[in-house]
Amino acid sequence: SRHLPHSGKVPKIISSILNRKDIRVDYNWTGWQKAYEGLHSGKYQGSFRQSQQTESDNNYFASEPILHSETVFFHLKKKPFCWSQLTDLNGIRCGATLRSKYPSRFLKAAEGGQIHLDWLSDDSLNFRRLLLGEIDAFPVSREIGQHKLQAYFTPK
């Protein structure tokens, strides 16, 4: 986020590494889709994202992971949510964010109808749907989820 010190952990690490080679970094804050289009058009020379490059996207080089994060399910406290395997998600309405990386077994379970996924373009929209009771759970990195909640929602 442009509002965090050093724009957050990953930009701080990237800037630190590139500055050692006298490369100055300017960050543009945009959605995943616009960043991806900017890479294709040459507007941007690089992008960082939450997950590794996919096998089908061999137009780019990807570094080793810079930071590992834990993906968790956010849910309302008044609607307890317990699971230990994918079959426990049967009947659970899950939100998902377009262009975010999810484990292949999770996506295969959704394709096979074992998990119901509703796709939206932004994590904040999925949190709004969660608060409205339109979905039961939303998988996202713990840090990103907490940041979105603090930045866009009141404590209540």
Key traits:
two-stranded antiparallel ribbon, 5 helices, alpha+beta
Description:
The chain has 156 residues and is α+β, with helices and mostly antiparallel strands. It has helices at 9-19, 32-41, 104-111, 123-131, 142-152; strands at residues 71-74, 93-97, 116-120, 138-141. Strand 2, helix 3 (104-111) and strand 3 (116-120) form a beta-alpha-beta unit. It is globular, with a radius of gyration of 17 Å.
Summarize the structure.
With 156 residues, the chain is of the alpha+beta class.
Q: Strands, helices and their partners?
A:
Elements lengths: L8 H11 L12 H10 L29 E4 L18 E5 L6 H8 L4 E5 L2 H9 L6 E4 H11 L4
Parallel strand pairs: 2-3
Antiparallel strand pairs: 1-4
